[in-house]
Design brief:
heterodimer, A: 542 residues, mainly alpha, three-stranded antiparallel sheet, 19 helices, B: Rossmann fold, Helicase, Ruva Protein, domain 3, 14 helices
């Protein structure tokens, strides 16, 4: 009887003990959770992550106490532990623990043992669980709300970014906008108008851009990683552009034999431009009176069949060619000529539109790279009285053309068509700055920096080494709608447009002509000739 | 039907204990703890080593105890020339009707209560005779083993200030005492009370509140008190912690103790704690009982190192620190 009562009492105490123990553990763990949250919030703040993305840093403050509560609640409590705790906290002088040992049946049930059980039972009945396990606040409980308050208070502070290697939110948003623009451009290319060999490359490019955009939206992307991925995308675009240009170069050049041309023609594998010309010639022949002979007609039909079967040609062009062949068979020459014109347009359009779009995409990717590399946009400084200046990335259009990112500067200086893109020229052209500058940003590697600094004055060191599009007017006044392109400082690895020897010979010839034309003292002539001899590349001059 | 008896017996135990204590305090002024511990030792069946300067009432204490309990009492004043036979007794030649023969003449050890006054003044040989009798509760004279009467209780005294010409008890022999009690000097009110009682020429009449049989019954009852595993473990930890080479020993023990308590010390603690539990009306030993008896039961079993003696660290302090350390560890679990 006493045994049962003691066990019932201990069960009651166990329930209460479990609750109190869990609450106490949660109270203790909440401080650790809050500290973890504070650390996470500091980390997020240091990385430049802002609200509401940083709300996740509050998770440890909830998860740690929650996990601890679950663990402590599920953890089994031996009855002996409860008995000892009741003895210790309730001041029962080991009555409960001793009774429990004797209830277990391991000990002889003497008269003293029975008396002890009665005593313990009475003591346990007379004690409330609340008295045995009073709910006490953890030590320094006030630290938890204080830490959490500090955690939330961090969000009110301005954004930090202690790790410039990580893109901050604004940079990611800007990059995503640029990627969206590029994707839109890529999607504008109708599949039917894209030469089939380029289609997989374009699809790969698009999927890479989409993946990068998704990563940028979803989480943190390292600057280096983003740069590498954009560079990879640019490489894809470049390869596609090269492929497109390669297709254009497949028409017979001056050095190619007629046999090679015929061979390509026989295979239907000629360049889109040459094919378009051939199609237009066929259309013209069909429109001409008298019409083509049967033999000519048969040759034309065979040629059309071959071209329609060529996989490189756009689908729209191939369909038009097939239709034209059918029309020719039924002697509907006018309709056939119309179809051939359409096929020619499709061929030419595919060639030019794809290349143009790819160039624009590459420009946009260059701009994105420059933006991530932390380069200030290259622009002509506006001096006193200079004209209005607007900066924008490559591929962005002028006002009246399309949207873009502009920085307006007020001034009235006459325009400069790109001169001043180097330091020396800029210095000499002070006060003659362009009204509008369309600057293309480009990335500059660390290896490039040294080369650049050797060539340019210190104030230009931070400027872009990429190509710059400059637009402006010849005199003070409003904006002109004309645009021109000037070469900026070269980048490492760029190939020269003209061979050095050609440039050298041209300049030397012009100098000789000028000396013949003008009255130049003999000493100066010798000096000029000596200069050209010294820089002669054939003699190893520099 | 028997079950209510145990509660009645415990109540009787408490009543008898209180009555003896009350009667003793008719003579003994103050010294509550000493009286309490002496009675505890008597009930537990142990012996007591009293340490205190002369004139504090040590002899009166034992004499009073003998009178209150209606038991025989003898006093042995230990001197350097005291021989074992002077304690245990000897065979003497007697003549009876013309016939001569040996007859055993029992020594003063053959009493229920023996006061071994200034035990450290006797030679080790004599001390050993007494201590052997204390342990075996019998003496052997001329090859004949003679049992001592129960209850048998020895209370030895030591004078801590007159050490010249003494033979300090070896550790092994000190270990045989259940308690070592320090008789403190009475405070002023107690001293005033002593003066008024002892110099007025009035005799105090003591009532015999218990006899040997009652003491033995109390002893048997105390041995029935339950000792849980947890409390036994507590005692074991306590004893282990007195050893400087034990990992659970506090730093003070490691620094100031040379040898710790023997297992006999643990037994002493438990039997004394059982009596203490009954005094509290409980049927089981609690850690509190152990704490209550730990200092008198262990203070003479801990041998301090040279550093401990030089620093003047008392064994009472060391035991107190061990108990505190144990409680701290138990609370942290």
């Amino acid at each position: 009887m006493d045994d049962t009562q003691i066990l019932e009492s201990l069960t009651r105490f166990t329930r209460f003990y479990r609750r109190q123990r869990t609450l106490l553990a949660v109270g203790r763990a909440s401080l650790w959770g809050a500290l973890l949250s504070l650390l996470a919030a500091l980390g997020a703040k240091g990385c430049g992550i802002e609200w509401p993305e940083t709300a996740i840093t509050l998770a440890p403050a909830l998860l740690v106490p929650g996990g601890v509560a679950l663990a402590w609640w599920l953890r089994p409590i031996p009855t002996m532990d409860v008995a000892r705790a009741v003895d210790r906290i309730g001041g029962l002088h080991e009555r409960a623990a001793t009774a429990l040992e004797w209830i277990g049946g391991r000990r002889p049930q003497t008269l003293m043992a029975r008396a002890q059980l009665r005593d313990a039972s009475a003591a346990l009945r007379g004690m409330s669980p609340k008295a045995a396990f009073p709910l006490t606040w953890p030590r320094r409980w006030w630290l938890t709300p204080l830490v959490l308050l500090g955690c939330v208070g961090l969000y009110a502070l301005p954004e930090w970014n202690l790790f410039p290697d990580t893109l901050d939110r604004a940079e990611r948003d800007a990059l995503r906008a640029q990627l969206a623009q590029i994707s839109t451009r890529a999607e504008e290319l109708k599949p039917a108008s894209v030469p089939p060999p380029l289609a997989p490359q374009l699809a790969r490019l698009q999927s890479e851009l989409k993946a990068l955009s998704r990563d940028l939206q979803g989480g943190r992307v390292k600057r280096r990683e983003a740069l590498a991925r954009v560079a990879a995308a640019r490489e894809q675009a470049r390869q596609a552009l090269e492929a497109s240009r390669g297709m254009a170069r497949r028409n017979p050049g001056p050095g190619q034999s007629g046999a090679q041309s015929d061979q390509r023609e026989q295979a239907g594998n000629e360049s889109p431009r040459a094919a378009a010309a051939r199609l237009r010639a066929m259309a013209e022949r069909l429109r001409k009176k008298p019409g083509p002979t049967d033999k000519q007609r048969e040759e034309m039909r065979r040629a059309l069949d071959r071209m329609a079967k060529a996989a490189d040609n756009p689908e729209a062009a191939r369909k038009a060619m097939e239709s034209a062949a059918r029309q020719m068979k039924s002697f509907a020459d006018m309709a056939a000529a119309q179809q051939l014109e359409q096929a020619a347009q499709a061929m030419a359009g595919a060639d030019s539109q794809t290349a143009k779009t790819l160039e624009q995409i590459m420009g946009n990717l260059d701009s994105a790279q420059a933006g991530m590399a932390g380069q200030p946009q290259m622009a002509q400084q506006s001096g006193p009285g200079a004209g209005q200046v607007q900066e924008m990335g490559e591929g962005q259009q002028m006002p009246g053309g399309a949207a873009g990112k502009y920085t307006k500067r007020q001034g009235k200086a006459p325009a400069d068509y790109g001169k001043g893109s180097t330091n020396r020229e800029q210095k000499g052209a002070e006060g003659k700055r362009p009204d509008y500058v369309l600057a293309r940003q480009s990335s500059r590697s660390n290896g490039m920096r040294g080369e650049y600094q050797k060539l340019y004055l210190p104030e230009r060191h931070k400027m872009s080494t990429g190509n710059a599009k400059v637009r402006g007017n010849t005199q003070a006044g409003p904006v002109l709608a004309t645009a021109d392109e000037a070469r900026g400082a070269p980048r490492m690895g760029d190939t020269a447009a003209t061979a050095e020897g050609e440039v050298y010979m041209q300049y030397r010839r012009e100098a000789e002509e000028a000396m013949l034309r003008e009255r130049v003292p003999q000493e100066y002539r010798d000096l000029i000739r000596s200069y050209f001899q010294e820089i002669d590349p054939r003699a190893g001059g520099n | 039907m028997d079950e209510p008896d145990i509660e009645a017996r415990v109540a009787q135990f408490q009543a008898t204990f209180d009555a003896i204590r009350k009667e003793m305090h008719k003579v003994i002024v103050g010294q509550e703890e000493v009286v309490e511990r002496v009675l505890t030792a008597v009930v537990a069946g142990g012996h007591v080593l009293l340490e205190g300067v002369p004139g504090l009432g040590k002899t009166v204490l034992v004499k009073t105890l003998g009178q209150v309990l209606d038991l025989s009492f003898s006093r042995i004043q230990f001197t350097p020339d005291l021989m074992p036979a002077d304690i245990c007794g000897t065979n003497i030649v007697v003549e009876d009707g013309g016939l001569r023969g040996f007859q055993f003449q029992p020594g003063p050890i053959f009493a229920h209560f023996v006061l071994a006054d200034e035990i450290n003044r006797a030679t080790p040989k004599t001390q050993s005779a007494l201590l052997e009798a204390m342990q075996e509760r019998s003496v052997t004279v001329a090859g004949v083993v003679r049992q001592l009467s129960e209850p048998f209780f020895v209370m030895a005294t030591q004078n801590p200030i007159e050490m010249e010409g003494t033979y300090p008890l070896p550790e092994a022999q000190v270990d045989r005492f259940l308690f070592k009690l320090i008789v403190a000097f009475p405070n002023v009110p107690q001293l005033v009370s002593i003066l008024s009682r002892t110099t007025a020429g009035t005799d105090v009449t003591l009532e015999k509140t218990a006899d040997g049989r009652a003491i033995l019954q109390m002893r048997r009852l105390s041995r029935e008190v339950l000792l849980s595993d947890a409390v036994a473990e507590y005692v074991a930890r306590l004893i282990s912690a007195t050893h400087p080479d034990h990992p659970d020993a506090p730093s003070s023990v490691k620094q100031f103790v040379r040898y710790g308590s023997s297992p006999r010390g643990a037994q002493s603690v438990v039997v004394a704690a059982k009596v203490h539990a009954l005094r509290q009306g409980r049927f089981n030993v609690a850690c509190e009982d152990v704490r209550a008896v730990a200092v008198p039961a262990l203070r003479h079993r801990i041998i301090r190192s040279f550093e401990g003696e030089a620093e003047g660290v008392s064994t009472d302090t060391l035991v107190g620190e061990i108990v505190k350390d144990l409680d701290r560890v138990a609370a942290a679990r």
